[in-house]
């Protein structure tokens, strides 16, 4: 048996595999995950690099960002969020999260279905990531309060006096500042289609009685592509789960990424796997496919580590690789 998934499957596929491994009656042989979310912090950090090197962030903004958030450090990978305690850095980060506005977040080079939307929901997707970095902040509360005042000049003076009297923690002030900038965006996005997509066909199909009967779906309400389910995130980073899977020695683990996806970008997964510190068995190299018109083509790049761990990119593909690169979905089965 194999377990596969994509996107948030980066959380539920490994955790399900870890659970299945405890049942020796099930012959689980491997997992396959496309464009997975492996680490929320790495995903938001790597998107900034993705944006700069794909021309979405200009040089001056990049220079300001590195100067304010990482002391102009450009020779090594900069953790921009390490400087989030400084209001100037946090303000630049809140602007950086808007780099996908008006673009198809699931495929940089594909059109935005229905035209460029109001940026409300796309910002909300990335705002969610930024909040994850505020829990361990230490900052000057007065500076944060001044930044909040600049951002929201209509604040009620009684609320300001209450804030000063109660001496909120730095984390509370930072979160309040960012929540004020995005609360309307986040609330408006609940239950909506992801930006630049059209889910009409799949929604109609999965709500057909015949389709639900064939799929053994119980009467649990209508299908929607995004729901308003409220839950608590338990896994901020999947490293402990992967370490458990690798330690078992029983599984073939394959992760792949369309390399122009911005929702769960390829750098995030590459950095995540590198941080597992497994021994490289096959250095990064191109893999190929046969195009019926143009002959042999480079389909992307592949790298392998000890523990039957494989990672490959699919060149020019977005978040839904089998959908956007239909001539190449067999790459994963051939290579692994």
Any overview of this molecule?
By secondary structure, the chain is of the alpha/beta class. It has helices spanning 9-20, 40-53, 59-70, 87-96, 120-131, 141-151, 157-166, 170-189, 200-206, 209-214, 239-248, 266-274, 321-324, 331-335, and strands at residues 2-6, 30-34, 252-258, 280-291, 295-305, 309-314. It has 2 domains: 40-189, no CATH class; 237-335, Rossmann fold (3-Layer(aba) Sandwich). The chain is built from 14 helices and 6 strands. A hairpin with a 3-residue loop joins strand 5 and strand 6. Helix 2 (40-53) packs across helix 12 and helix 5 runs antiparallel to helix 8 (170-189). Keywords: Carboxypeptidase, Hydrolase, Protease. InterPro entries: AB_hydrolase_fold, Peptidase_S10, Ser_caboxypep_ser_AS.
Radius of gyration: 22 Å
Major sheet attributes:
6 strands, mixed
Secondary structure class reads alpha/beta
Assign an overall shape. globular
The fraction of residues assigned to DSSP E strands is 5-15%
Lateral strand order in the biggest sheet: 1-2-3-6-5-4
Instruction: Spell the H/E element sequence.
Output: EHEHHHHHHHHHHEHEEEHH
Multimerization state: single chain
Provide the helix percentage.
40-55%
Low-confidence stretches: 129-145, 150-158, 177-191
Summarize this structure as a short list of keywords or feature phrases.
single chain; 336 residues; alpha/beta; Rossmann fold; 2 domains; six-stranded mixed sheet; 42% helix
């Amino acid at each position: 048996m194999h377990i596969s998934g994509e996107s948030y499957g980066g959380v539920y596929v490994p955790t399900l595999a870890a659970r299945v491994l405890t049942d020796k009656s099930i012959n689980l042989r491997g997992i396959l995950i496309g464009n997975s979310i492996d680490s929320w912090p790495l995903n938001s950090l790597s998107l900034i690099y993705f944006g700069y090197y794909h021309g979405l962030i200009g040089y001056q903004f990049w220079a300001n960002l590195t100067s304010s958030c990482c002391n102009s450090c450009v020779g090594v990978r900069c953790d921009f969020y390490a400087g989030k305690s400084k209001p100037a850095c946090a303000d630049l980060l809140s602007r950086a999260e808007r780099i996908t506005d008006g673009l198809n977040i699931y495929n940089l080079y594909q059109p935005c279905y229905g035209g460029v939307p109001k940026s409300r929901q796309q910002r909300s997707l990335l705002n969610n990531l930024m909040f994850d970095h505020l829990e361990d902040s230490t900052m000057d509360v007065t500076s944060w309060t001044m930044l909040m005042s600049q951002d929201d000049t209509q604040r009620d003076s009684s609320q300001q006096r209450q804030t000063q009297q109660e001496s909120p923690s730095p984390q509370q002030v930072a979160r309040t500042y960012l929540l004020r900038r995005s609360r309307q965006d986040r609330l408006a996005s609940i239950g909506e289609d992801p930006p630049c997509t059209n889910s009409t066909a799949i929604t109609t199909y999965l709500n057909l009685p015949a389709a639900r009967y064939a799929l053994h779906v119980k009467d649990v309400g209508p299908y929607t592509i995004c729901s308003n389910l409220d839950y608590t995130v338990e896994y901020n980073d999947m490293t402990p789960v992967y370490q458990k899977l690798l330690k078992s020695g029983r599984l073939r683990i394959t992760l792949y990424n369309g390399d122009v996806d911005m929702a769960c970008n390829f750098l995030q997964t590459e950095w995540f796997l590198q941080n597992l510190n497994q021994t490289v068995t096959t250095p990064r190299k191109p893999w190929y496919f046969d195009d019926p018109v143009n002959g042999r083509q480079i389909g992307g790049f592949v790298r392998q580590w000890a523990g039957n761990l494989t990672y490959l990119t699919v060149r020019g593909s977005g978040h839904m690789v089998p959908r956007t690169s239909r001539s190449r979905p067999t790459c994963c089965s051939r290579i692994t």
